[in-house]
Here is the input.
Amino acid sequence: MELVMATGIGALVAAGVWLLLRERTFPVVLGLALLSYAANLFIFAGGRLSATSPPLVLGEVAAGATPADPLPQALVLTAIVISFGTTAYLVALSLRLVGESGTDEVDDRGDQA
Amino acid sequence: MMHLPLLPVLVPLAAAILQLALHRAGIAGQRTIGLGSAGLSVLLALALLWTTGDGAVRVVALGNWPAPFGILVVADRLAATMVAVTAAVALPALLAATGGADRLGRHFHPFFQLQLAGVNGAFLTGDLFNLFVFFEVMLIASYTLLAHGAGPERARAALHYVVLNLAGSLVFLIALGLLYGTLGTLSIADLAGRVAALPAEHAAPARAAFALLLAVFAFKAALVPLGLWLPHAYGAATAPVAAIFSVLTKVGIYAILRLSTAVFPAADWTAGLLAPWLMPVALGTVVVATLGVLAARRLGAMVANLLLLSTGMLAAAVAEGGPRMLAAMLYYLPHTTLVSAALFLLVGRIADARGEVGDRIVHAPRPERWRWHAAAWLALAIAVTGLPPLSGFLGKVMLLSAAPAGPTGAAMWVTFILSGFAGALAMARAGSVVFWERADQPAAAQTSAVLPGAALGVALCCVPLLVVGAAPLSTHARAVAEQVLARQPYLAAALPGPEAAPRERRP
Here is the structure.
């Protein structure tokens, strides 16, 4: 499972960085979204991968069993919410840029003030 | 007041919610709420300075969860000082915004308050994940504030800023995941103990995590080579927004200082993380920013580069460390933040008065009240470039007299003095083009509002105050530096009883 997880995160990061370096805003937004998936999976993996450990529910964890670490789950939840919000804002900002300058290129080639 | 350290976060947050709820009440209501909250923040910052002044570290455990599991808000002298600087910048910036800049787009005021909440939270939080959360609060507010106002240029600058900062935040997240995975905690005080317990041969992932964290903080502080976005973004922002942004780079400096003093001395394997590269990078920032100041063709870009320059000087002081250097840096930090903010406000005034020409450094008809602008520009130029008799000079003298003997100290002397000289040259040239050289046709009459002028007055007042109050301020700065370097007060307050909670050893 570790290998699948590691290659998955690696592939997401590679694709995300490649898209981030594109010259139009839409691929850049997608790239950031992929990178945020990779970061979230990475944090989640920081809590150790285990298919058998029960969730931490008070009174329901059997004696002797080690429950899954709840903190990375909470961190991931926070990170997902934040990246969702920022991605939505980025989309809105890109749309405004298209509306105002008529192009969705990230860099303005014309005016170099 | 048990919960005093929490209030600088809660008050702006409550004000923002109130403003959103009452946004139909019109701009006057929004302004009243905003100014009330900013004024209250000043009072809270003073109260915080007073309660931490005796060396006590105030801790609030949210929900009364015990450390290291709960979320802590920790106010020591350093945090209180930073909160006070933020409040001192926020009030004039908001006053200036009420002159009309807040009507360029919707919801300026709630975002301004959220910005304050985020910055204060970043200064006061006691663990790294909440540092991330408050960074995000601060950044989301800054994204919208930067894009505030019309124009494709501003939208494009905002887009660059947002994309860069989102990428930075993701690196931050990855560093946090790595840190939690290896050390099992994100509380700053707890990290110090964990770092000490981690044997050096297993330290590689934690070292990588700290390196990533420092890179993110260096990016937020806009150090070279990660800081080339700053002049572009800050130059495009409206004046009040740029003024409050002059605090944002200090959050990065603060985070580097906090991490390097509270956590890194705990173990030997952290030794090489900061020392070899921070000083060259800081001095490089000063050099690049100086070139930027000389090359600037707009007053806004010039001031943004001056801000970058001062950030480089602060980072150099953090890199050098030591009680005298940090004390000098903590005197220089409020000075440079306030003066940069005042300069941004002044440039906004000048650009408004000149009409179409804006803040471009070209000949143009002189507006009616150019003498006041020119006098303010002169005073702030003296302060920001470190000429006597204003506070920049005192700060620079303190920094340079604390510089060590040897090549590092020599490099600091050369870059600081030459950058001040070049800055003075560039500002004198810009001032003479903008204010002195005659253009023939008379200027168009401009209406000038009273409040932005008052804001500029408040900001300008800080400059003589910093000079007159130099002795008590530098005494305070020394006390802050001593407390930060002593480490123990912070660690003991934020983590009472290091053996309180035995935890599993992480595989």
Notes: Chain A has three helices and no strands. The radius of gyration of chain A is 19 Å. The first helix of chain A runs from residue 2 to 20. The domain at 2-49+68-101 of chain A is CATH 1.10.287 (Helix Hairpins).
